[in-house]
Amino acid sequence: MELREDGIYCDCTVGGGGHLLMMLEKTHNTRFIGIDQDPEALDFVRANLGSFKERVILYEGNFAHLDRIINELNIKGLDGILFDLGASFHQLTTPERGFSFNLDGRLLMQMSPETVPLYSKLRAANKEEIFYVLKNYGDVPDARTLAVAIFENRHKLNTTMDLRKLVEKRFSGRFLKKNLHRVFQAFRIWTNEELKNLKEGLIKAVHLLFPRRRMIVISYHSGEDRIVKNIFRDFEKQKILRRLNKKVIRPRIEEIHKNPAARSARMRVVEKCASC
Ligand SMILES: C[S@@+](CC[C@H](N)C(=O)[O-])C[C@H]1O[C@@H](n2cnc3c(N)ncnc32)[C@H](O)[C@@H]1O
């Protein structure tokens, strides 16, 4: 991201504030908007902004409504936009949030308190819907067998460990961890409507970006990356965007050693065309 001292930038996924603080530290006058749908993320970042707080507006909301948010803040357009998708470290490591297959907690997985929790969504779902989620969002092998087991037990699925036990009946040994990850990620994506929000947010972000300014998207799931790639390619065909990397950027091995959570990260960078 090229940071201009007179610019306004938007971090659409503030999370723990790592990227936001890094950008603040590199600049003196640049202003930032930090969005997250999770009020716990915003409370955490607010408490850590220190003297940077004059240059930041934190906004609780869904980036799917980016146009409305930016309009409400009376801002005409943006000099740079960042999306770092998925769940935050805080969400994944807080048992009460119910995201992790390693930590016992209620089966919630909500990024926003307004989202319907997973245990409740499962109770209202039919077999086909559960199968669709496991197959398409998780690429879970033999998704139908697990979908049937989840459907039949849906009224007893109250905690992360209840769901884990069902997955353990289906997979074992070296396949277990991989498939626990797939199942939990698939249900997280479904609970938070992540793919739908991403499509809406990205399209709005492209329109809000000033000419010659950049947008960066970091995703951790092939379904997300496909959406990002296709949307960017379509805007490039219309001569609205230019892709700065045609091939996705993956983390270097040293980065993965330092931060294992980055192993599945894929980054795409685009620039708005001069005449748009
Ligand atoms: C991977 S974390 C971001 C981490 C952050 N870049 C950092 O350096 O700490 C993703 C964050 O995006 C938020 N998020 C995901 N989807 C969102 C959406 N549709 N609207 C707003 N926030 C969203 C999550 O609540 C989470 O806090």
Automatic annotation (TrEMBL):
Q: Please provide the record's keywords in A-Z order.
A: Methyltransferase, rRNA processing, S-adenosyl-L-methionine, Transferase
The cross-references to Gene3D superfamilies, in alphabetical order and at most eight, read: Putative methyltransferase TM0872, insert domain, Vaccinia Virus protein VP39
| Family statement drawn from the similarity comment of this UniProt entry | Belongs to the methyltransferase superfamily. RsmH family.
Known EC number: 2.1.1.199
Question: What lineage, starting at the top, does this entry show?
Answer: Bacteria, Bacteria division WOR-3
Q: Which NCBIfam families match?
A: 16S rRNA (cytosine(1402)-N(4))-methyltransferase RsmH
Recorded protein name is 16S rRNA (Cytosine(1402)-N(4))-methyltransferase
GO MF annotation: an example: rRNA (cytosine-N4-)-methyltransferase activity
Does the keyword rRNA processing belong to this entry? yes
Q: Which PANTHER family match?
A: 12S RRNA N4-METHYLCYTIDINE METHYLTRANSFERASE (PTHR11265:SF0), S-ADENOSYL-METHYLTRANSFERASE MRAW (PTHR11265)
Q: Which Pfam family name is an example for this entry?
A: Methyltransf_5
Q: Give the GO biological process terms.
A: rRNA base methylation
